[in-house]
Amino acid sequence: MTDQTNVAYRIEKDSMGERQIPETVYYGIQTLRALENFPISGIKPLPTYVDACVLIKKATAIANGELGCIPEDISQAIVQAADEILNGNLRDQFVVDVYQAGAGTSHHMNVNEVLSNRALELLADQKGNYKRVNPNDHVNYGQSTNDVIPTAIRIGGLLALERTLYPALSGAIAALENKGREFQDVIRSGRTHLQDAVPVRLGENFRAWAQILSEHMIRIETAAGDLTLLGLGGSAAGTGLNTHPKYRFRVAEILSELIDQPLRPAPHLMAAMQSMAPFVNVSGALRNLAQDCAKISHDLRLLDSGPKTGLKEIQLSPVQPGSSIMPGKYNPVMAEMTSMVCFQVMGYDGAIALAAQAGQLELNVMMPLIAYDLIHSIEILGNTLAALTHRCIEGITANRDRCLSFAEGSLALVTALNPHIGYLNAASVAKESLETGKSLREIVLERQLMTPEALADVLNLKQMSQLPELE
What we know:
The chain is mainly α. The chain has 18 helices and 8 strands. It is 57% helix and 7% strand. Strands 1-2 form a two-stranded antiparallel ribbon. Strands 3-4 form a two-stranded antiparallel ribbon. A two-stranded parallel ribbon has the order 5-6.
């Protein structure tokens, strides 16, 4: 148990009264009330989301200082405090549970209070002396939770995409393309409905996966374009109340410079505040990516199944022992982890959709959930793709002999005979092969349906598995 006898306190006051605040903390009375009200999950705000909020406060302090809305010394102190936080200081002061007051007011005030109290220290004043630097009147000048939190979700999403998902997705695409080239000469049996199908190139499987991920990258980038339109400057209910006429334009310019993104004010600030459609759109693109990533991870596990009783056409890198009781067992753990993360992203997408439609009139009060689920989706997908690439895809090897054996033994080779002996004859040949164990070649020659030379040409696996060239 912590000894509370020597803890020093300061007294802070809000519209509900006074409370004691531990002198060591930088948050204030409104954060304390949120801690008391919302002991729900223990999940704190994501670092990227904190970055987004602090970047907004830095940009607004610069803009309001330039426009004469707050004193220049206070503006500079807030900016310096923001920079310290962005460099990693005071990160433990952002303490409000994800599940909190509607719209994110609790977290928003947590940010305002921490910046205010650190700015006071930088001005050689005492924490809690809000007459000098006030969380509401200075740090939050011309702002509201109404416009700050939707903007923070936008900025947080853009940061997470640039920092985490885009690099990982590009790396996965490159690794799959490399494997495509490496395995281009490996012929394996295709499978549809988990039954034998015509021969395919193992390299083309990997190239197909690379193409799938490339198309998802384009979809996500397109959806993310909506995040660059900011409602910041809408203040309360989108009216722009208590803001300088030039503020929304200047703050968008400053934020653009801070995150190197082409941000601009939304054409209708109230619309940007009410609608969660941009977040639903990005989340849907992430869900779409997750669905295909899960499918690819399932395929990798299936192709690696065995080693004695499965397909074992490829070998995934063994990265850890696979069983607490069965010695020598190695499991496809990176692919398994990928599937679990993808399922979580799909679940987050459902929660985001429900939260997005739950807004009323001028505000959506479910934004804290949307903020966490969207940014977390981006980051865990990015981290997953990076781990899957480096600890699984890059080390995959092909079991060439096993692939070829399956391909040569597949009854689906009979498909190539259709134009030469007809579908019904081909089906009869396949049935006899399955019943007798004879090869397709033996039966076709016994029935004198084709000459040996013609048959050899038609059942050329290399030729059968070659994809047509695109113009």
